[in-house]
Structure of Flavin-containing monooxygenase 1:
Amino acid sequence: AGMRVAVVGAGVSGLAATKCCLDEGLEPTCFEQSQDIGGLWRYTEHIEAGRPSLYPSVISNTSKEMSAFSDFPCPEDFPVFLPNARFLDYLRRYAEHFGLREHIRFRTTVVSIRKHPDFATTGQWHVVTEADGKEVSHVFDAVMVCSGNFSKPSLPLHCFSGIERFQGQYFHSRQYKHPDVFQGKRVLVVGMGNSGVDIAVEASRVASKVTVCTSRGAWLVRRVFDHGYPWDMVFNTRLMSLIRNNLPGPLSRALLNYKVNQQFNHENYGLQPEKRYFLPVLNDDLPSYILTGRITIKPGVKEFKENTVVFHNCPEEEPIDIVVFCTGYEVSFPFLEESVVKVENKHASLYKYVFPAHLQKHTLAVLGLIRSLGGILPMTEMQARWVTRVFKGRRAKGSLPGFGLSFDEVLKTEYVVYMDTLASFIGAKPSVLRLLCRDPWLAFIIFFGPCTPYQYRLGGPGQWEGARQAILTQWDRTLKPTRTRVPAGSSSYFPSLLIVVGFLLLLAAVIFGF
């Protein structure tokens, strides 16, 4: 019999994990507590305990070509940035295409995962699940934890002095579904992540006043980037990544600073971040809403009073009716023992953000915790491809260095670098140089074009014969849904100047051994 693997959760990570297990000839059993797949992307009107909760207007932050599974491109008629219902549709097609449903047990909750008594020799795990009020215990050879980190809201009320006196309404962004609760009200949004900005923009269409307060500011990136191209297809290219990672730190940051301020000057909008580098917020509306006075940006909250709030460095009180705390989520694994994955003040000790560094057998992996400036889906899939190879023992990893990584550190992970690192562990990293001799046009697109997931299926284990074609047609699929009035010509996104500069850079790359 093959190696039995337990997969916890049937969201993006769980589906990728199940599929990669099947690819490697392992036997996955995926446990999903709800009645359907999709995890975060499955919208429900009511909020379910222990499950992520979406608001209806959520749209993917990464474009469809940059957030597709590497051997399953998005349908060409889907919009470039997928609304949550379309994203779920894509996930369903994927599950259907690779026959994943038969390996998923729905309405089954994982209660606990403990080391088997003979873990030291077998690396096995004791998994207890619960369905219809009945508990069942299983033994698995390995475990892939794919439960995500958007289920346990982080709401540190003790950090907001006077909140107990406040007489208005307040709730965590997880509770938010529709803007009508804000009708005619004065709204305060605390925190400036993606949800905070989304909610503020929606509220401002019906509220009498909307204020967003942030102690640390934020970089704001629009989905619609230079010349109207999707931001990530311009930002996450091998060329750009090479430049960002080989320039000295201050220069690289200055470049990023220049780039984000080119769209609009963050200082003038009260947004300039305190810290030099963390994940940008994606939103297309905020600058114009600030400019038209629909949204006001303020510093962090000093204290709440009965029906007003006072901000730091602002003497006057501001009257408010509703507060939305967009203060993010806590990472939690209620079914794991502390000793397996330690999470202390948002730190988890995970090698490459995946393997608990101190286990003597590497038979448990945590997927999809990573945050970076790129699509979570391809990263998770790459993690699953690597993990399943490690489970099979094909790749001796040597000893894993133990180190703690804070989740704020995770944010600094450069998308292309991380993908390449894991791909090189399994032998699936594309070599631009080798391709240059064999298939120069492809090498060219891979180096200068967007670093789409299909690049990691050109060779190595899990090679897919459609990868080259998927890469050559990636811009066609991007432009098809928007070029609806004019016939879609052949769409190449390379100004001639770029080609000239490109060849020079490619030469340099060859000389310096890229």
